[in-house]
Amino acid sequence: MFRNIALKTIFNLRWQLLSWTISIIFVSFITMAFFNSFNQEGIDEIVNSVPESLQSLVGDVADFKTIPGYIGQQIFGPNLVILTIAMSIMVFIGVSASEEDSKRLQSLLSLPVSRTSVYFQKLIALVFFVAVVCIGIAIGIYLALPLIEKSADFNRIVESVFAAWLMNIAYGLVAFAAAMAIGKKGLVIGLSSGYAALSFIVSSLAPAVKELQVVDKLSIFHYYNNPQIMQHGLNAHHIYILLAIIAFLTIIGWLGFIRRDIQT
């Protein structure tokens, strides 16, 4: 049906793409709809009662009082993006290790197409997939703004979506590069999900635990929304690091894929 591998991959993922996008729009919308509730009396005491080590997950009380702070913490903060990180890892594994496990990758490689073409066309499809889902975050925000009678800075939302897109691609590439380089699905799932969970925990605790601040530099999450993009704009240095991580993982995965023996 499709001669282009990227288009075929997107077509095969169409229902996942639709369901994930709708889900993220819904979660983003519902989260925004609760903005006015967080301005009621008593929220200060609730937020301040959270242990210091978990404050980065909840955010500062002031963040709940303004639209930029609320969007930056509750939408583009840990609460929502943990879903997109899990999604990225699952989808990236699905078109790599899972396809090899089911022998579909071997069937594709039996055709007159280079491994390089297979690798990068699949990656292009995945990058598109993540972009659509991340745009869903912004759609949810703008659907909710009239409901709560507020407005938001369009440019800052675009910047936040862009950073979320890069961050999710980076996490997905941890799984994709490992899958294409070593091909062992169980090991890939363990490595990628383990790294994601550990890096998320370290980055969440690092602001309150000085001993973790050095290790935190190894976490992809450290370079995302730090400081909050909705309030401070993009951190160019962190964006360059995310791009470098993406480039590095892409090359590692590609070199491993074109050189290793794939069992038929």
Topology:
Blueprint: H1 5-12, H2 14-33, H3 43-48, H4 55-58, H5 67-75, H6 78-94, H7 97-101, H8 104-109, H9 115-148, H10 154-182, H11 185-205, H12 229-232, H13 236-259
Helix pairs in contact: 1-9, 2-6, 2-9, 6-9, 6-10, 6-11, 9-10, 10-11, 10-13
Quick synopsis:
The protein has 264 residues and is an all-alpha fold. It has 13 helices and no strands.
Structure description:
By secondary structure, the protein is mostly helical. It has one domain (5-259). Helices cover 71% and strands 0% of the residues. It has 13 helices and no strands. It has helices at 5-12, 14-33, 43-48, 55-58, 67-75, 78-94, 97-101, 104-109, 115-148, 154-182, 185-205, 229-232, 236-259. α6 runs antiparallel to α9, α6 runs parallel beside α10 and α6 packs antiparallel against α11 (185-205). The longest helix has 34 residues, at 115-148. The radius of gyration is 20 Å and the shape is globular.
Question: How many H/I helices?
Answer: 13
Poorly predicted segments: none
What is the percentage of strand-forming residues? under 5%
Radius of gyration: 20 Å
Total strand count, please?
A: 0
Q: How many structural domains can be distinguished in the coordinates? A: 1
What letter string, H or E per element, gives the SSE order? HHHHHHHHHHHHH
Question: Quick check: average pLDDT?
Answer: 89
